[in-house]
Write a structure and sequence with these properties.
Number of helices: 10
Helix content: 25-40%
Structural class: alpha+beta
Number of strands: 17
Oligomer: single chain
Strand content: 15-25%
Largest sheet: 8 strands, antiparallel
Radius of gyration: 22 Å
Order of helices and strands: HEEEEEEEEEEEEEEEEEHHHHHHHHH
Shape: globular
Distance between the termini: 15 Å
C-alpha cells in the first residue's frame, strides 16, 4: 500500500450509477438494442436472464458464443464449489452475477486484424476464497491467458493495480494502472489495441498505454470471465462487450461516464497542485455524504492533504475518523493503518508506528502480504532508531520464513 506522494496520485473516484434510476435503465435498454444491431460487436453478454449457475448466458453479438458457468473443483479433494450468485446490477431492474472461484467459459475470442476493444462493467468486493501467490493477480476477463498468447484484463489487491495484457512468446506486453479503484462501486473498464498501441481506460478516462506493434498470437484456449489462476476476487459482472474495431476515446468516455463526483475530485486535485489544501478539503467535504465508499476516499485524501502540510494532528484525527466509520471494510481498515503508521514515522514516533503494525497483524482480513509488510516495516522502525540488533533479528526471521515458503514473497 504505497503512500500517496503527490496530488496526481491522490485516490480518485468516478462514482458510477449511484442509486436506482429508472431513466438510466431505460437508456441502457436502448443502448443494448443498438449494440445488438451493431455488426462490429463480436461478443455481447448482459447476464440479464441468468437465474442460477445452470443458466446459459446468451451471446447477443455476431459470434453467437454463449457462456456456461464452470464451478471450481479442488484438485486434491475433488470437492466442487458452485458459488455463483445472481445479484442486483447497476440498476434494481438489471441483473448481474457474482463470481469467486468459478468462472464463465465459452469459445475462444481472439483479436482479428489487430482491431480490438473490450468493455466490461465490474465491481470488486474484496479478495476471494483463493489467495494469490506472490505476484499472481486475479483475472477479470481473458482470452485465453494473456501470457504467451491471447489477451486479458487482470487485477490484484496487494498492491492494487489493473492491467490490460497481450501475450507474446513466453511473456506479455502490459498497459498497467497502479491506481486504487474503490471496492463496492461499479466501474467501467475498456481496453483497445489498433496494432500499434494498447490503451486501458477506467471509468471513461485513459489510465495506461503501451506501444506494441507486434503480431498477435492466437490460442485455442477457452474465453473466460472470472477466476482463471493465481488468486480470486469477489467479482460482480454486469455487462461485457467485445468489438472487432477500435472504439474512439469519445465513445469510451460516453460509455464509461460517471457522475459529477469525478469533477469534484479533479477540482480538488488542481487545488492540491497549487498548495491550496483548505480549498481542496472543502471539495472533498462535498463527497462525505455519499454511499458506496465516497466517504472513505474523501477522508483518505483529506488526511493526505493534512500530511502534505505537516499538520500531523489533523491527519491523525482524520485517520481516526475513517477507522470509526460504520461498515468499514477490512481492506480499508488495514490500508488506513498502514498510512497512519507512516505519518508516525515521519514524526519519528516509532513506538506508535510499531503499535499500528502490530495491530495490522491481528486484524481480521489481513492477507499474507499485509502480515509480511507489517513485520518488515516494524524492522525498518528499529533500523531508523539505530537499534540494529533488533532490526536484524526481524529481518533474519522473515528471510528464513520466505526461504522455506513454497511461494516466497518477491
Amino acid at each position: 500500500m504505497k503512500r500517496v506522494k503527490s496530488s496526481v496520485a491522490f485516490i480518485m473516484l468516478s462514482v458510477l450509477c449511484l442509486g436506482a434510476e429508472s431513466g438510466g435503465y431505460r437508456r441502457w435498454l436502448e443502448r443494448r438494442d443498438t449494440l445488438m444491431q451493431d455488426k462490429s460487436v463480436a461478443r455481447y453478454y448482459t447476464f440479464e436472464n441468468v437465474e442460477n449457475s445452470r443458466s446459459l448466458v446468451k451471446d447477443l453479438g455476431t459470434d453467437g458464443a454463449d457462456l456456461t458457468f464452470v464451478p471450481f473443483r479442488d484438485a486434491k479433494t475433488g470437492e466442487v464449489f458452485d458459488d455463483l450468485k445472481v445479484v442486483e446490477g447497476r440498476w434494481p431492474e438489471k441483473k448481474a452475477v457474482r463470481l469467486d472461484r468459478g468462472w464463465y467459459q465459452g469459445l475462444p475470442s481472439d483479436i482479428k486484424n489487430k482491431e480490438f476493444t473490450v468493455e466490461i462493467w465490474f465491481r470488486k468486493n474484496g479478495p476471494g476464497s483463493i489467495f494469490p501467490r506472490a505476484g499472481k493477480g486475479a483475472y477479470i476477463i481473458s482470452a485465453p491467458a494473456g501470457w504467451g498468447a491471447g489477451w486479458r484484463l487482470i487485477t490484484e489487491y496487494s498492491p492494487a493495480w489493473l492491467s490490460f495484457d497481450i501475450g507474446i512468446e513466453k511473456n506479455n506486453v502490459r498497459a498497467k494502472s497502479d491506481k486504487m479503484y474503490s471496492d463496492n462501486v461499479w466501474h467501467h473498464a475498456a481496453a483497445t489495441w489498433d496494432g500499434r498501441e494498447m490503451k486501458l481506460y477506467v471509468d471513461g478516462t485513459m489510465a495506461a498505454s503501451k506501444v506494441f506493434a507486434g503480431e498477435y498470437i492466437a490460442s485455442k484456449e477457452p474465453f473466460k470471465i472470472g477466476f482463471r489462476s493465481g488468486g480470486s476476487i469477489i467479482l460482480d459482472v454486469d455487462e461485457a462487450v467485445i468489438y472487432n474495431r477500435v472504439l474512439s476515446e469519445d465513445e469510451i468516455e460516453k460509455s464509461g461516464r460517471g457522475v459529477s463526483e469525478k469533477d469534484i475530485f479533479s477540482r480538488a486535485d488542481a487545488l492540491i497542485g497549487k498548495g491550496e489544501y483548505k480549498s481542496a478539503r472543502a471539495e472533498y467535504e462535498k463527497l462525505k455524504g455519499l454511499t458506496n465508499y465516497g466517504r472513505e476516499l474523501a477522508l483518505f485524501n483529506m488526511a493526505e492533504s493534512y500530511r502534505m502540510e505537516k499538520d500531523y494532528a489533523n491527519a491523525h484525527k482524520t485517520y481516526n475518523e475513517i477507522m470509526n466509520l460504520d461498515k468499514l471494510t477490512d481492506y480499508y481498515r488495514i490500508y488506513c493503518m498502514f498510512l497512519q503508521a507512516e505519518v508516525y514515522l515521519e514524526q519519528k514516533d516509532y513506538v506508535n508506528g510499531r503499535k499500528l503494525y502490530e495491530t495490522i497483524t491481528k486484524t481480521k482480513g489481513a492477507l499474507e502480504d499485509h502480515l509480511f509488510r507489517a513485520r518488515l516495516k516494524t524492522a525498518d522502525t528499529y533500523r531508523m532508531e539505530r537499534n540494529h540488533s533488533r532490526a536484524r533479528s526481524i529481518y533474519e526471521s522473515l528471510l528464513k520464513k520466505e526461504e522455506s515458503s513454497a511461494y516466497p514473497h518477491e
